[in-house]
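User: Hey, quick favor. My workstation is busy. Could you predict this chain's structure for me?
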Amino acid sequence: MKKGLLLFGVILLLSVFVFSEDMTILLAPKS
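Assistant: No problem, here it is.
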């Protein structure tokens, strides 16, 4: 059960990182 929770946490962190990166690109299109 803890393995699934760990996997979920990793996926959540990864998606948050990708989402924030996408937002940065959208907010700063000049870069």
